[in-house]
Design a protein that fits this description.
5 strands; mainly beta; Hypothetical upf0131 protein ytfp
Length: 116
């Protein structure tokens, strides 16, 4: 996670019971001027957390929060896809939510939602 679901952020409580680790990924974090960020393709470093979800029900809950309906849905606010994440000196693959809108907002130079 890289935005409002981070520990201590507006929706961080949703993942309160989950195991979290500091992590980075490659992409571009953008401020959508809506109170939450988006992740788009890029070559910058994005800072966030790798979160271990307890079950598919939690993934479905996150899909709802992120406006993801199905991989083929034309109305997704975000699209869920894999990203390679660096965590604890290892590369792992994880689900993330990529911004699916036309407005790309402004780049967050730090790559960190907390330091926007």
């Amino acid at each position: 996670v890289y935005g409002t679901l981070l520990a201590g952020e507006e929706r961080g409580h949703v993942l309160e019971a989950c195991e979290r680790h500091q992590a980075t990924a490659t992409g571009q974090l953008v401020d959508l001027n809506r109170g939450y960020p988006g992740l788009v393709p890029g070559k910058a470093t994005v800072h966030g957390e790798l979160v271990r979800l307890p079950d598919d029900a939690m993934l479905a809950r996150l899909d709802g929060i992120e406006g993801f309906h199905a991989h083929t849905s034309p109305i997704n606010l975000y699209r869920r896809g894999f990203v390679q994440v660096q965590c604890g000196g290892e590369d792992v693959w994880a689900w993330t939510y990529y911004w699916n809108g036309m407005d790309l907002g402004e780049a967050i130079p730090s790559g960190d939602w907390r330091q926007r």
